[in-house]
Fold:
Amino acid sequence: MILFKNVSKRYPDGYVALNNIDLTVQTGEMVFLTGHSGAGKSTLLKLIAALERPTSGTISISGQNIAQLKPAAIPYLRRKIGFVFQDHKLLFDRNAFDNVLLPLQISNFDSKTVASRVRAALDKVGLLRKEKSMPIALSGGERQRLCIARAVVHRPSILIADEPTGNLDVEYAHDIMTMFTSFNQVGVTVLIATHDASLLEDKQHRILSLRQGKLAA
Amino acid sequence: MMRAWLTQHAFVFFHTLKRLIATPVTSLLSVIVMGIALSLPVGVYVLMENLESMSGQTTGTPQMSLFLQQDAQQNDFDRIKQRLQEEPHIVSFQFISKAVAFKQLQHSSGFSDVMAGLARNPLPDAFIVHLEHNPPEALERLRTVIQDWPEVAHVQFDSEWIERLNALLQLGRAIILMLATLLSIAIIAIMFNTIRLQILTKRDEIEISKLIGATDSFIHRPFLYFGAIQGLAGGVTAWLIVALFIRVLNEELVVLARLYEVDIHLQYLSLQDSMSLLLFSAWLGWLGARISVASHLWQIEPR
Ligand SMILES: Nc1ncnc2c1ncn2[C@@H]1O[C@H](COP(=O)(O)OP(=O)(O)OP(=O)(O)O)[C@@H](O)[C@H]1O
Ligand SMILES: [Mg+2]
Structure:
């Protein structure tokens, strides 16, 4: 369970990106986060993975208070989360395979199973044939899918996706959403920030709407 | 879990080797610089070790030679033995008859021709006395006591040159220590800078790894390996430089030795000293990397 209580985030330049947010996401839930550009969607998602720290309020994940986490404990929190970054954050000095391999290296996975896991993740996003390609040689949509493969390869219990379909055509966007739904069906908590109105047509899932750093009803 | 940990370290190790080989000129240059820097104190150390072992096993414990009157007889010898046994401060003593001394001198090359020309043995009977460590005044007092014994013609004190040698060796050790300290600092500084440049070029990798849950030790590890491996390579280079230096000197010494009919040659670094050198140089590289990592990586926090 992800719990926000009176959470505010003011950036060092004084800009208040989030203002008094109260929010509960149940374990195994799938939630969409929407709002205008600059509304604070990315900021909210970053707070969950402790990529940003809140200025005030408490954030707890499975009962653990993230705001008071010691720096040494933060990596282990991040390993429980798969994060699809809005700006991808791929490594341009290594091929697609090695990019997806990185989370497994970081969490000390047994070397025998890693290759098959990486290929399974690449296969899910339709990039298996491009495993040797460098990110510079991939299209915008392919990079986005590579980022998704990297976010799911270590089978996180929480999947956070910041504009995961921003560069994808309708067909791929649909496939990606099907993928996220199937993750959700095996118990993964999924949070997706998007402007994409077509994704929001799906009425099954809760939609949270941010405006000027506040949650609208 | 243990195996995963080992695999991880082996992976980083080979990855680091690959990185070193990928930039052969840069790596080679810094290894050579470190090797030369280390070879200076190590070279001085080897020379000193040789000087110390050449000066004989007696180094350190003072020694005195008692030369007896030419006409001394067996009962004189016995009397002196008795008195020496009663003296304090004496560790051991050894009787060398004139015949034995003559034979020894004949065998130790260089004098054989001169000795052959002599009509009779000019050497006196002698005692060699090993003494306890004592202040020079106490030893001097003992010397005057023994000098007064009627059977003794002359007492020669061997501790002066030993003391001089010891002082010289002391100086040598101080020089080594100073050289080693300064050059170790230089090596740490070289490594600090090398790692700083690497951290700059790997900024993205470090930042992204942190974003997806890399611990600090995971991020530090490749740099520490890099420092240790390059330090080790510097140590090997230093060892080779010193070995080459000894080899060249020994070739020169062969000529000298033939001229003087003596056997002198320099010993290479002992196994133990070689291991210490390699361990120490690896540690220096590691330390330089450690300091660099500690002072640069915190700046790369994903924010
Ligand atoms: N590091 C930062 N320092 C200062 N201000 C920031 C920083 N990051 C974001 N902001 C500001 O906070 C506000 C919210 O940013 P955020 O990235 O959360 O918006 P968003 O809803 O994700 O927008 P978009 O849909 O364009 O991605 C913006 O006005 C932005 O300028
Ligand atoms: Mg955003």
User: Anything to note?
Assistant: Chain B touches chain A at residues 1, 3-5, 7-8, 11, 204-205, 207-216, 218, 302-303 (CB under 8 Å). Residues 2-58+164-299 of chain B form one domain.
